[in-house]
Amino acid sequence: VFGEIRADMIDPGPGALNDETDIFNVNITQSNSLSRWNAFYRTINFCNTVIDNAPSVREIDPTLSVEQLNAYLSEVLTLRSLMYFYLVKSYRDVPLKLTATTKDTDLQDLPKTSAAAILTQVVNDLKKAEAGAVTTFGNTVTDKGRVTKFTVNSVLADVYLWMDNYEGCIQECNKVINSQRFALQSAASSWYFNVFFNGSSIETVFEFNNKSSVSSPLFNALGRSPKRFLASSYLGSDVFIPDDVDPTRFYDIREEAFYRGSDLAVVKWGTDAVTFINWQVYRISDLMLMKAEALAETSRGAEALALIEEIRLKRGAVVATSQTVDPGDKDAISDYILAERAREFAFEGKRWYDLLRIAKRDNYKRLDLLLNIVAQTVNPALQQSAITKFRDVNSHYFPIHEAELFADPQLVQNPFYTK
Questions:
Q1: 132, 54 contact by CB (below 8 A)
Q2: Mean pLDDT, range 311-322, rounded to an integer
Q3: pTM, rounded to two decimals
């Protein structure tokens, strides 16, 4: 939700809730139920509990080796880092708690910590996690569904790119790309089935496994009628453009696998109440496009464009979506990368963060990226108001929910929402 409905690839469906419609229309208040951060901090507390207590297990169970302990700790450090990274991207400054809450006396009122300080903590934790993480658990399904060194590298590359640390991003991407453990599958009708439904594919670095039938958390939003969310109506003309140049490749192979053009239903995550489809967190294509973005920002545009074209070739991308870009034009390469990321990661919760990451770069040099989506997503009667709000960069982050403010007197509301 956080990464899609603030962006431009999802439209509200006839079943959209009022709080969801308010987000689409850039009319977010501190009472909006979707601005709750409970799930993030619940997961963080699980991680903190393991981090605090795992070392003492060796006193009880001497068969637990130091290497095994460090591997377990690397997993929870990485998951905690991922939670804080999402919080920073969504709220900016948030409370930082690094110890477990297991009883009432552990409860603390905490002020916000700056995004910069949290990201410093995240980077340090990920470096520690990399040192203890395993390269493989010995079987493919576990390697894809649990944290390995390559998961850590992927998260760290993502964090570095958000921080505009381009050399750091390239270095972490190379650790994954050059490992030769991951590769793009060729364009074929079986691509979606292999990567998403079967899962554990050669493309996947990290995924949440649904190897047995489980209730789909997205069914009520995307599958049940009336649907709360639909694919944006502009996708067929601006993103997955039909090709009248090459009749042998009229459509990109990703289009029909991701949404249904006839009724704009999002089908990428299945249309049944139960699902076997794995949620993709990082694939090799993500690392390639992150590296391309960092290369473009370090004046290596030709290398960046080569990575984009490698992905397009493997996906059977149509001629109509090809762009002729000057290797020295950073903004044009960024636009090309955004377009390709839209096709590759449609409905995966990445779009808003992609737009915001590039928009905020160089003191919001590309604010136009956010202003331009208003015409595609906001009710026409509210568009001018939305544009005015988006010009205030503080509006790009969620408010702290009022319940959190009442519970913790040290919290101060995010600036835009105090007006």
A1: no
A2: 91
A3: 0.95
